[in-house]
Design brief:
It is a single chain. The chain is α/β, with parallel strands linked by helices and 556 residues long. It folds into three domains: 192 residues, Rossmann fold (3-Layer(aba) Sandwich), CATH 3.40.50.620; 110 residues, Glutamyl-tRNA Synthetase, Domain 3 (Glutamyl-tRNA Synthetase, domain 3, Alpha-Beta Complex), CATH 3.90.800; 202 residues, Ribosomal Protein L25, Chain P (Beta Barrel). It is built from 13 helices and 27 strands. The longest helix is centred in the N-terminal third of the chain and has 16 residues. It starts with 16 loop residues before the first helix and ends in a 6-residue tail after the last strand. The chain binds adenosine-5'-triphosphate (ATP) and magnesium ion. The site of adenosine-5'-triphosphate has 14 residues, from helix 2 and strand 8.
C-alpha cells in the first residue's frame, strides 16, 4: 500500500495510538506476532466507515508482517444474506487487501462455542432463564438502579445442563427461555448484569441451515471467535468500550489459555452529508430514495466504485483522517480531495459539452474539417500522447459559456465577444439567433487564427472554453451527483433531510471523438467539468453513459 501524498488532513491522533499498544505488547513479548481481523456482520453492504476499519486492520497486518482474517459475524440468521457476503468479499479485495487463509465464519465455531458453554454451566457461571425477553429487560435495572436477580438464577448446574441440551434439541419455542451468564445484577456496567449468551431462534441460517435452533449472542461469540483464531488485537469501535469487561470475563471464565486477545476501541468514522447506519442505508435502498446499494450517491464501497473512486483514493482518505479515540465528523471535502489528488496525474484530459449550444462558424466552408492535435496530459511534459480534435463549420459549446447580456465579471462569450476554443481557433460571436419562445437556437460566429481583441477578459483577453464538433461528436448521457443529504450531520429523518437534487442528468451531452473508445473503468478529466467514468451498469457503445466522479475545484 503506497501513499505518496503527504498527510495534511485533520488527523486527530498524534500518531496512531493503536500502534503504540501493539509496540508495547511486542516489546513485552505478550504475543508472538500480530493478528487482527475484520469482522463484518453480513446484513448489508460495506460503507466508507467499514473501509476505515479495513484499512486499519489489514494495514496493521502489513506493517507488522502479521495476519488479518476476514470473519463474518453471522449469528443473526434473520437479517443476513449471501448477497451481502459476496459483496463484502468483493469490496475488501477491491480495496486492495488480501485476508489470511480462507474466509472465516463465526458459524464455523457454533459447535465449539456450544461446548464452551456447557463448561460455563458446569462451573456455575451460566444458567437457563425462563423469563421472557421483556421480563429480562425489566429485571435489568437502569444506569441509576441496580438490577434484580431472576427467580431462575439459582438452578443447579445439572438442571441448567439438562435444559440447555433441550434448548439445543429444539424442544422449546422461540423466546421462551434463554441462557444467561451469571455475573452480577448490581454491576454499574449494565453489560455485566447477567447478559444473554444464547437465545432460541428457529430460523434457517444461510450456512448451517436448520441445524441450530439456538444462536449465541454477538458479544459472546465475538470474543470466543477471536480467541479461537489467535487474534492478538481485536479492534472495534468506541461503543464497545463498555463491553470490554464482558469480553475479558468470558475468556477468563472459560480458562482460555493466554495469550488472550486484547480489545482496543477507536472512534467510528462519521462523514458529513451522509449516513453510515446499515439500517438507514437499507431503508434508502428499500424505499427507493436511491437506485440500489451501488447508487453512486451512497457512501457504500460499491457505490464509490461505480461512481469512479479508486481504491487508492479511499485508502489515501482513510490514512489522512487517521485513527482517533474521540468521535468526530469528517468533512466531505477530504474524501473529494483524496480522489482529485489521485486522479490528477492519472486521468487523460478530453472535452465534453454537457448542455450543448450550437455555434455556426460562418466563414468556415461547409464540408471542410481540420484536425488539431491536443495532448492528453498537457501539464506533464514527459507524457506526449495526443489525440486529434476535429474542427468543423458547426460546433457545440457549453450553454453556460454564453450570455445574451453578460455582467461585468462574466468573461466568456456574448454578442460581439470573442473566446478561445481550447486547442483550436478563436471565435467571435456576431448574433444569437432565437427561437419563438425567446430561447437561443444557435450562435452566428466567425473564426480567426489569432485573437482580434474582442475578448472580455482584462486587456481584451479572450477566455478559453471547451467545445466539441457538432457532426463528429458522440451523443451521450452524463450524470452529475451532489450530496445525498441537505444537512451536514443528518440524523436519519429521510424525508426532511434528503437533497432532492442529488442527481442531475444531461441526456443530450456531446463528447469529443476520442471518447468513442472509452472502456469500462477508464477515468477521464473532461476539461473544466471534472473527472468522469463510464457507468458500469448503464454504459454501452450504443448508449454512452458517464458518471461524474468529482468536480475539479477543492470547495469546502
Ligand atoms: P452498523 O452500526 O451500521 O450496522 P456495524 O458496526 O454493526 O455497522 P459491522 O458489520 O458489525 O457493522 O462492522 C464491521 C466492522 O466495521 C466492525 O469492527 C465495526 O467496528 C467497523 N465499523 C462499522 N462502522 C464503522 C465506522 N463508521 N467507522 C469505523 N469502523 C466502523
Ligand atoms: Mg456491528
Amino acid at each position: 500500500m503506497s501513499l505518496e501524498i503527504k498527510n495534511e488532513a485533520p488527523n486527530e491522533s498524534t500518531g496512531n495510538f493503536i500502534r503504540t499498544f501493539i509496540d508495547e505488547d511486542l516489546l513485552n513479548g505478550r504475543y508472538p506476532g500480530t493478528v487482527t481481523r475484520f469482522p463484518p456482520e453480513p446484513n448489508g453492504y460495506l460503507h466508507i466507515g467499514h473501509a476505515k476499519s479495513i484499512c486499519l486492520n489489514f494495514g496493521l497486518a502489513v506493517i507488522y508482517n502479521g495476519a488479518c482474517n476476514l470473519r463474518f459475524d453471522d449469528t443473526n440468521p434473520v437479517r443476513e444474506d449471501v448477497e451481502y457476503i459476496d459483496s463484502i468479499k468483493k469490496d475488501v479485495s477491491w480495496l486492495g487487501f488480501t485476508w489470511t487463509g480462507s474466509v472465516r465464519y463465526a458459524s464455523d465455531y457454533f459447535e465449539q462455542i456450544y461446548t464452551c458453554t456447557k463448561k460455563l454451566i458446569q462451573k456455575g457461571l451460566a444458567y437457563v432463564d425462563d423469563l421472557s425477553q421483556e421480563e429480562v429487560r425489566n429485571y435489568r435495572g437502569t444506569l441509576t438502579k441496580p438490577g434484580q436477580n431472576s427467580p431462575w438464577r439459582n438452578r443447579t448446574a445439572e438442571e441448567n445442563l439438562f435444559l440447555f441440551r433441550r434448548m439445543r434439541a429444539g424442544e422449546f419455542p422461540d423466546g421462551s427461555r434463554s441462557l444467561r451468564a451469571k455475573i452480577d445484577m448490581t454491576s454499574p456496567n449494565i453489560n455485566l448484569r447477567d447478559p444473554t449468551l444464547y437465545r432460541i431462534r428457529k430460523a434457517i441460517h444461510h450456512r448451517t441451515g436448520d441445524e441450530w435452533p439456538i444462536y449465541p449472542m454477538y458479544d459472546y461469540t465475538h470474543c470466543i471467535s477471536d480467541a479461537i483464531e489467535g487474534i492478538t488485537h481485536s479492534i472495534c469501535t468506541l461503543e464497545f468500550e463498555d463491553h470490554r469487561s464482558l469480553y475479558d470475563w468470558v475468556l477468563e471464565a472459560l480458562d482460555w489459555p493466554p495469550p488472550r486477545p486484547r480489545q482496543i476501541e477507536f472512534a467510528r468514522l462519521n462523514l458529513e452529508y451522509t449516513i453510515m447506519s446499515k439500517r438507514k442505508l437499507l431503508q434508502l435502498v428499500k424505499d427507493k430514495y436511491v437506485e440500489g446499494w451501488d447508487d453512486p450517491r451512497l457512501p457504500t464501497i460499491a457505490a464509490f466504485r461505480r461512481r469512479g473512486f479508486t481504491p487508492e483514493s479511499i485508502r489515501l482518505f482513510c490514512d489522512r483522517i487517521g485513527i482517533a479515540k474521540r468521535d468526530s465528523w469528517i468533512e466531505y471535502y477530504w474524501l473529494e480531495k483524496a480522489i482529485r489528488d489521485d486522479l490528477n496525474s492519472k486521468a487523460p484530459r478530453v472535452m465534453a459539452v454537457l448542455n450543448p449550444l450550437k455555434a455556426v462558424i460562418e466563414n468556415w466552408p461547409k464540408d471542410q474539417t481540420k484536425e488539431f492535435q491536443a495532448p492528453y496530459f498537457p501539464d506533464d511534459p514527459n507524457r506526449t500522447s495526443i489525440r486529434p480534435l476535429i474542427f468543423e463549420r458547426e460546433i457545440y459549446i457549453e450553454a453556460e459559456d454564453f450570455m445574451l447580456d453578460p455582467p461585468k465579471k462574466f468573461y466568456r462569450l456574448g454578442p460581439g465577444r470573442e473566446v478561445h476554443l481550447r486547442w483550436g481557433f478563436y471565435i467571435h460571436c456576431h448574433e444569437a439567433v432565437r427561437n419563438e419562445d425567446g430561447t437561443i437556437s444557435k450562435l452566428r460566429c466567425t473564426y480567426s487564427e489569432e485573437p482580434r481583441g474582442f475578448g472580455a477578459g482584462p486587456g481584451g483577453q479572450p477566455a478559453i472554453i471547451h467545445w466539441v464538433p457538432a457532426k463528429n461528436s458522440i451523443p451521450a448521457r452524463v450524470r452529475l451527483y451532489d450530496r445525498l443529504f441537505k444537512v451536514p450531520r443528518p440524523k436519519g429523518n429521510l424525508d426532511k433531510e434528503i437533497n432532492p437534487n442529488s442527481l442531475r442528468e444531461y441526456s443530450e451531452a456531446r463528447l469529443e471523438p476520442a471518447l468513442r473508445k472509452a472502456g469500462p473503468g477508464e477515468r477521464w478529466q473532461f476539461e473544466r467539468l471534472g473527472y468522469f467514468i463510464t457507468d458500469e451498469k448503464l454504459h454501452t457503445s450504443q448508449n454512452p453513459t458517464f458518471n461524474r466522479i468529482v468536480t475539479l475545484k477543492d470547495k469546502r
